[in-house]
Structures are given as structure tokens and as C-alpha cells.
Amino acid sequence: MEEFTVLAQKLELDVDFVTRSLKGKTVITIQPKTQDLNTIRLNARQCIIKKAQIEGFPVSPKYSDPYTRIQMRPSWTVHQHQIARERLEDELKLAPLEPEDALELAMPRGVKIKQAGQTLVPRQPLILGPDAQTNGVVNGDVLDSAVPRIEMVGSYVNLDITLEFEVPSFRDGLHFVGLLDGDDRYPHVYTHNSSLAGTACSIFPCVDKASSRHEWDISIRCPRTLGDAVRKTPAPSAVASASNLPNGVTQSNGDHSMTGTDQSEYIISLTREELATEMLVVCSGDLTDDITDPNDPTHKTVSFRVNNLVAPRHIGFAIGPFEHVNLSEFRESDQDEKLGTNATRVHGFCLPGRAEEIRNTCMPLAAALDFIGIHYGVYPFANHKVCFVDDLAPNIADTASLSICSTRLLVPENILDPLDDVTRELIRGLAAQWIGISVIPREGEDEWIAIGGQHFIADHFGQELWGKNEQRFRNKMAADKIVDTDMNRPSLHELGKHVSQIPAWRDFMKLKAPLVLHILHQRLVKASGRNGVNRIYARLFQNAKTEALLDGAISTQNFLKICEKWVYGSGCPLFYITQRFNKKKLVVELTIRQSQKDSIVEQKLEPGNFHRRVKEDQLDVGGSETQPIFTGPMTIRIHEADGTPYEHIVEIKDQVTKVEIPYNTKYKRLKRSRRQKERAAAATGIDTAGDNQDDVLLYCLGDTLQSEEEVKDWRLTDWSKEDEEKMAQESYEWIRVDKDFEWIAKVMFNQPHYMYVSQLQQDNDVVAQVEAMQYLYFQAQNHPHPLISAICVRTLMDRRYFHGIRVMAADILAMNGREELDYIGLYHLEKAYQEFFCLNDSLMTRSNDFSDRVSYLIQCAIPRAMARVRDNNGKVPMRVKQFFVDKLKFNDNSNNEYSDCYYLSILMSCLGESLITKSQSGAPRYDFSFEEDEAAIAEAEFQRKAINEIERYRRIDEWIPSYQNIHSVTSMDCMQLLMQSKTIPRKGVDFMQSTRSGNADSIRVKAFDGLAQLGFMANPTVMKYIVQSFAFETSPYMRKQIWTALWLGLGHASLTKPQTQASIPEQNGGLIVEQDQSTTEQRQAELKRKETVPGALGALKIELGQDEGLADATLQALRSPSIGAEDFVELLDLCDVLYDPSEGKLVVTLQYPRYWRVEHLGGGKVRFSKTEKIRTTKMKPYAPPTKSQPAKRQGSPELKRRATEDHVKQPHPTIRITQKQKEASPAPAVVPPQPVQPVQPVQPPAPSVKLKLKLGKKE
What we know:
Elements: E1 4-16, E2 21-32, E3 39-42, E4 48-54, E5 57-58, E6 62-63, H1 81-92, E7 103-106, E8 115-122, E9 137-138, E10 141-142, E11 150-156, E12 159-167, E13 174-177, E14 188-191, E15 214-223, H2 226-229, H3 272-275, E16 280-283, E17 286-292, E18 299-310, E19 317-320, E20 323-326, H4 333-339, E21 345-350, H5 355-361, H6 365-376, E22 383-389, E23 396-399, E24 402-406, H7 419-431, E25 440-441, H8 447-466, H9 468-485, H10 492-495, H11 503-528, H12 533-545, E26 553-554, H13 564-568, E27 574-582, E28 587-594, H14 610-619, E29 632-640, E30 645-652, E31 656-662, H15 672-684, H16 708-714, H17 721-729, E32 732-737, E33 746-749, H18 753-762, H19 766-782, H20 786-797, H21 803-815, H22 824-837, H23 853-866, H24 878-889, H25 901-914, H26 934-959, H27 966-980, H28 988-994, H29 1001-1013, H30 1020-1031, H31 1036-1055, E34 1066-1068, E35 1071-1073, H32 1080-1091, H33 1093-1103, H34 1108-1118, H35 1125-1138, E36 1145-1149, E37 1154-1162, E38 1165-1174, H36 1197-1208, E39 1216-1220
Parallel strand pairs: 1-15, 21-22, 22-24, 25-26, 27-33
Antiparallel strand pairs: 1-2, 2-12, 3-7, 4-5, 4-12, 6-7, 8-11, 9-10, 13-14, 14-19, 15-18, 16-19, 17-18, 20-21, 23-24, 27-28, 28-31, 29-30, 29-32, 34-35, 36-39, 37-38
Domain Transcription initiation factor TFIID subunit 2 TPR repeats: 754-1046
Keywords: Nucleus, Transcription, Transcription regulation
GO molecular function: chromatin binding; RNA polymerase II general transcription initiation factor activity; transcription cis-regulatory region binding
């Protein structure tokens, strides 16, 4: 039980840019819950407590910085990583969500906890109403929350805790940019918040728990201008008289003048205009005050107020020379008039010179805020702010009323490609203000509700912004990806326990959780007709606002149980469906068999999933139990011959479900010959309206290229007579399974191919079209046919199709571009490109015009598809290669208002891929022929020219940078592909040079990724460089990317057998006999290495773990003072992979014992003093003399011999011993060895003095 509750907290922060430090004062108001409160425990990291008071009474805080106790000791090696991990978990409690209490304040004697009276508090949280624990939905309606039950609780008088603190340097919490040598970016600072605990208490003392939510008053003191922020020495203090004002400041305006300033006064070089730039403070809450410091005009204090209940981890701020952009101006005028004063203002902040980019990027935010406010409840705060900063590791850090965004998300007005994904991410950050900050998950297992809710709300608005087809297409693609990857994975509920420790789990949760909410929404809407998941979240936010939701926390148990199997179980159902038309009964007989075991395939260990598999092995977590049966309704739609769709709902309850669906129409199926005859007649002007009145005319997509001339020119193939006869006998057009998209499942349906074509051409649902295209792709991959190419090219040429369907059609055409089919698919791709983008009757491409977004997507999709065309030797036809070179050489973008950088990068990638020779299985194919014929010479010459063309764009990018250096990144990617296929020699130095600090982040990220993909990290020297780069990198974003590349490289190193010197083959005359030297054990070890995590880790420990240089670099990285707690944990994970922990052994350093000198002072007094003589031999234990054996005198021969031996021996200054770990916890303190002094001979006593000591028991 908690002993107190935090009611409010006041913060006063003073940020120093030059020293990159912070001073502050905080007043925490608490309400005790018990009168026996003797100790108050708070969370604090990396700070120094200067002063502490409780109700004005000084107290002595008991505090020790946890960061000082998790460092590697000087005597430790990398094999002591397990000890460091145990200490880390004890100090910081990184496994749970809450940190360890680090600051203890004993209650002073002068403070008494007094009773204040009675208060009313909720007894238990109420989420959706009194029946929320059972279902939460009655007849499809979401229940309103009832009046919360309350109880009487005695309250006590509030206590104020005042703390003055200082943070001299930051490892976590705050990040400073632009203040180091060589960093020419604008100086600014911001909080890099996280959904986990530990960030807030690294900045200021607090109760850093998710349940500790209260109001805030924040005051931030900072430099007033950019010049004040980077000045080496503080400006003189200001007083009232004008004579004492700082140089350049007048009483009339109070502004600084940059005249007479010296650049040596500043830590970085800036222009006068930049030095005079005003510093802005962007913080959570509402701005209440902004005043200049009366004692120092170079500083100002900005105050904010957070009236909502917010946890410390959701308090964020940024300070820098930001430009302010009013994003509310993009709100529609009618909407602005309708909302009036109730309209929530949206503010944007960016670094100088990027205002236009933020306008283009954040244009939809105001509309999104209004849309979410209408459908989910009023925005929780008074205004919303977005601030773009450099080096931020995630794309967006979510804080109360403030989204701290990375500048990587800024998109100029002339860039098209990344805009959709960036907009979705910004809207997700906006939705996090409702679910994630205003309402939080109660436990880690409930994290899926917040993540899924954010993406569900963003998708809801995305459907309004991009259209229904776009959203359903994305959902279908996501569902297919989940079906392929959700094998032996933990459930959504289990993912939340370790989602912070395994990044791949968070990505999978972002993929699956919104889809689970989508299918839940579909089922609720079908049941109620109006209320879905959006209504559930709206009621949830209302309960949180009225405090009916205790602590504003939501749990899985209080959510709907209708999606229980999708939350607590893993895997996706696999349906095998067979259909048969019974002419006697006039019914369609369907058999639905559900089988999850058939879809479970053991995941192959690959470099891409190596990190996740290792983390799962370390945490001893595996896949959740696969659900044997998934239940729920499934909508089946039958399109009968009259064109009318008939829907039937089938309840799936058992493993095998058999249903009979009645047939409703008397018409026969519409024949393709009838349709073609009418089109041909329409082309010639003949009226056939009176013929065959019994046939039903259907609207059909993909009906382009129908004239005889077009059919001949495009080399199109039509249906065979056999197919026509089969189609004539069918009684219905096609059958749709799961029409309403209520399942995340894979459906295997034995429907004939011409029914899938009818579904593609006559069903206007984009999901139905995707299913038909997926069937055609499977057929083209296994049974290519010219008819498939004809269907797909008609789909590609029909502008009425959704652009995603047309892109899929281009991919299928590439599958039909085979040598045995006379490259018919390639011919259709070339013909389509010429028709769309070339001059009339010419192969010359027109000037680029990307104003039509759909046309631009098709222009990018066709070259991608052409690059995948291969002949029987695995080579791309020369005409395709020449196509890419010509398009790069003669590209004309002079009349285009949009940039062509992404389009050119696609052409470069296609050209690089076309130079690779692949076999049909996808593995590289090598030609060992030594004949240098003319074709080979020509091909080699073309390869040289093609690589030069790629390099030409890279060199242009060095002088005229493209957006995020996309040309340089693409060029490096092409070189990587050519090296991997051994088309060109591997050169790691090219990538190593690009990893250096000072290059663009995008180039460095690609360079580290290239080193990993090419297998260079199997070299201990390269691995040492990567570890050192990670440890001493200042950018959090780059540290994250380096670590991702490091694990990717470890995956390649562990799964690739190291190259050894090949044995000389045995020669017998002219016959060479090659013998396989590998044994069965070696082959089994190699198989274990490639298929199991323990086998791969064992190989890494042999190949990398025995390198002393890498071990020293890793140990140096662990001792780096700049890495944070999470980075320290990552390095310990690396040690766990490469090094075995020492088995109960620890090397310690102890001092040798020394001899003592005894001096008789007379009068019965004796003085003992330590000598410089070191004893290195073990002394025998003293045995008291017996009556039969008198004690030896001091001058006996035995004592003289022992003393002589001690004088002769030269002792070593230190000794290394081993001690059992169980006996030595905690580790002994390390004492440096003392220098060995020359042994001084003991002076014999004076002859006149005799000392007689009698030892033993007194008789």
C-alpha cells in the first residue's frame, strides 16, 4: 500500500547551455495516507541534492546516485557482466516499469501528521459500466458508466517537500545539440521522454510512477538569446542605472546589440543575426508567464501550468532558437467559424529556416484534431504543440500537450514519397494525447490497448483523409503480413511484459493491435448497427475526464472480452474452404475447415530476426499457446448470375463447419463471348440491344484494350474454348469469403480461376480485388500463362482501379516476363510505360510531371517490376538494362514542380539490381566459363558504364544534396548488392569512411548497415570499431541505429561459416580428386549453428569472444561516462552473447601483511608500530608451551633461521587469488598496492636492556 499520494508538484529549472548542466528546485505537495509515515521515498538519478526540507524543517537526505553504483569496477572484466547485471536490476529496477526508490527523507521531529477529516474516493475503477467485467456490450450498445461506488477515507494534512538539486552532467533525460566541436547545428536542448519510468527522475526528483498523476507548475530559466546561451562567461549583472547596463543594452529598449562583440566570447561561431535570435521555451501545459530576469537581462523565466493529472514521464520541454508557426490557419474557414473560441489552437516550432517545411508537413493536424475531438471527445488540453528537434531517437516523443518530433519527419513541399507515412505518424502522436497520456495502460500487459488505440484513431482519420480504399488496402496488406509472421509469437497480452526490452515486439504490436481492434469494430458495428470501437474509446475518455476511471488507467480485463482469443492467444486461423453447387437442392454447399497447426512453421533463424530470437532466449520467453479454434461470425457473399450479391452470415464454432446456402436467381452466368461481342459491336457502331434479352449486362473493370487492332498490337490472349464452356455451365459469378474483413486469417479457396477474374473485374471492393490479384500472382509464379499477362495489363492500363491494384498488376507482369513465354510480360510493361510516359510514337520519355500522384506511383512501379525480369540464365535482358541507363541519362525534371530525387533513386536501384545474375531459385548464379567472347566483353563494358552512372549521381549529391541524401544512400545500397552477389570485389573501406562522425545521419546509418550486411562484422577489428562508435556516439538516434546494425552483423557472423584455407586437392595424373574433409559431427554442428540460437551463440563465442581487443573495447564501452542505463543494458546483452560469465570466480587485489616492531618504553609500557617489511610466507599458528616442552627463547636458533629467510626473500608487491563468488558478495574494495620499500634490518636491543615475556595461561 502506498504511504502517500502526490497532489501537485512545482518545478523551477535553470538550464546552462555552456556547461550542459541544470540546477533546480522542486516543491512536492503530498497527502499522507497513514499517520505512521516516517520515511518519504522519491525517485532521483544522476543529481546532487543540495538542500532538503519538509514543511520548512531541514532534513538530511539519504541518497546515493544509482549510476555511480552500476559501473564496472577496475578489477572486473567482461566475464563479470552477470554481476553488473544483477547490480543494475537491483539499483534501477529496469525489468518492471517502476524505478527503485533512490532518495529517502526521514520525517523531522518538528513535523506531525495531523488528521484533516473525511474524504470521498472511488472504491474501484469503472471503465465501461457495471457489466464491464463480463462483456461491456448489451445488444450492441456500449453501456454508460454508472455512478462510481465510493467509500469514506480519513485524510491528513498536506505536506510540502522542498528540494534543491543540481545535475552536473546528463546521461539520460536531457539531450543538448550543437554545443560540441564540429557540430554546426543550432544549439538547443530537449527531453527525450519514454513511456517507461526513469526519464523524468533523471531530470528532477519526483515519484516516477505511472500511477502518480497530478497537476504541475513549471518555471524554466534559460538564456534570452542564442548569443547569451553560447557565451563562455556570463554577462555582468544588470542594475537600475544605465551606466551599469551590459554593453550593447540600452534602457530604452532593453534589447541586446551585437555591435562590438567578439567571437572568442562564444563557444561556437555564429553570425550576428544568429546571436540575436530569441530563445523559445516549449513545454507541456499552458504558457502563463514570460519575463526577463530583473537581475540578469541575459536570461528569462518562462512559466507553464498543467491543470490535468499527468505523470512525470509525460512532462517534456524543449529550449532553442525555434521559429513559431501557427498551424491553426490551415483549419477550414467554415470549421473555424463553427468552433469559434472552442477551437483548439495548434502551434508548430522548428529550427530557423524550416518554417515552410513544417507548414507542409503538419498541414492536416488541425483537421485531425477537430475530427478526433468530434468522434472521441474534446481534446484533453488547452492547445497542442509540435516541436521538431535533432537527434531524437524515436520519430515522436509523446508528452502532455506537446509532441517532440524528429526533424527527419519534416518534408519539403516538393517531396511526395514520404508524406503519407509522416502524416500518419504525426496523427498517431496527436491521438496519443487521448490514449497514452490522458488515459494510460494500468500494467505492461495492457500496453496493446494504448498502442492499438493510437493507430486505430489515426487510421480512422486517415480514412477520411485518403479514402476508404486506401485504408482497406493497407489493412489487407497488414493482415497478410501478420498471418505470415505470427508464428510462435507471444500474444498481445504477453508482448507488453517485455515490449521495452525487445524492439521487434513493439513493432509487431504496432502491426497487430490496430488490426485486432479493426476486426472487433467490424463485428460490433454489424451487431449494433452504429456503435463500434470508436464509441468504446469515446466513453473511455469521458470516464477519465469525469474521474470515473480510477487513476485514468485502463486494463485488458476491463476491456471487451469479445476479442479475448485475439489478445490472449497467438497465431492466426487457416481456413480450407471447398464449394459445390447442388443442382437438385439449388444450394451452394460450403465446407469450412479450420486448422492452425498446418500454418505453424518453425521460424528460420535469419540475420534480421537474430536479435529478437536472442532476446527471447535470454528472457526465457516464447510463443503463447496457439488457439485451437477461433470463433466468430463470417460473412459469405455469393454473386449470382443476375449480378445481385447475396450475403449470408455463418457462425464459426467448430473445427469443421458445413453450410448450405440457397440459390436465388434463375439466370445463367453471363458468358465472356457475349460480353466481347457487344464490345466489338459497340466499337463498329452496330446496335445489339435486341439480342439475347435474357442475358444480364454487368459493369466491368479492366475492359480496356478491346478492339482488334489493340489486341493485335498488344499481343493479348483471350479465353480458350474450354474455359468458355466451363464458364457457361456455372450458376454464379464468384464467391467472397469474409466479405466484411472480420478475420485476420489465411483462406484457401478452391474457386476456379475465371471466378477470381470476375471478382477482380466486377467487385468494387478493393479487398476483393487484392484477393484476386494474390491468386493471379500465385498462378503466375507457378503456372505462367499469356492470359494472365493479358488480364494484368488491362488492369494496369485501367485508371479506374485503385493504384495499389495496378502496382500489383505490374508485379505479376514481371512474373510472366519469361523466356519460354517470349517475354510477354516484359513487352506489356514496356508498352504500358511508353503509352503513359513517352512521346507519341516514340521511346523518348516526356518531361517529368508528378502533379498526378497516381500516375507518379505507376511511373515508379513499372521500372521496379522490369528489374525483376530474368532469362533462363538468371540475367536481366540487355534491353532492360539499357532502359534504366537511358532513363537516368535523359531524365528531364526542368518543368516539374516536384523533386525527382526518389524517382531517380528507384531507377538507380533498378539498374543496380539488373546487373546481378540470379538463378530462378533466387540464389546468385556464377559463370565459370573462361571464354571471353564478344558478348561477355560487351556486358563487362556495359557494367562499367552503369556503375559510373550510379556514381555520377552520388558525386552530384555531394555538391547538391538531395532530400536526406537519398542519392548517396541509394548508391551505397547498389554497391552493397553488387558486392553481395560478387559482381564487384568487396571493399569495406568505402563503407568505413562513411561511418565517420560529420557525415549525414542517413549516410552513416546506411554505411553501418552495409558493414553488417556484407559480413564485415565477423572481423573482430571491425566489431571493435562498431562497439567503440556506439559507446562514444553523442546522438541518441545514431546510437540506436548503430546498435541495430551491430546485431544485424552478429546475425550474419553467427549464421555464416568462416572461410578457412582450402586444402590442396589430390592430383592423380590429370585427374583432380576433391575429398570432403567434413565429418558428421562438423555437419551437425554447422546445421545447429544455422537453425538454433544456442548453436549460433556458441559459434560467436568461438569466433569473436576470444579476441582480447574486442573484449577490451567492450569493457571500455561499459565504463564510458556518456552512455545511459538502457545503453549499459544493451552492452551487457552483448557480453552475455560473446562471453561466458566467470563461474564463481572473481579476481581481487589485496595488500600483503606487514611485520610489527615492538619497543619497550619502560615502566611496564610497550609500543607497537608497523614496519615496511612485507610478509609473504604463512606463519604457523602459535602453540602455547607445555610443561614437557618449554617455550623457545627469542634468541633461539629457530627464530634466527626464520628471520634470516625473511630477509633473503624478495616479495612480489601483489598477489592474485580466486575467491568463490558465493562467499564474496559484495565484492571487496580494491586497494592499490603499496610500493615495496627496502627492508630495514632490525636493530638489536641495547645490551643493558633485557625484556622477558612469558606467554601462556596464568597458573
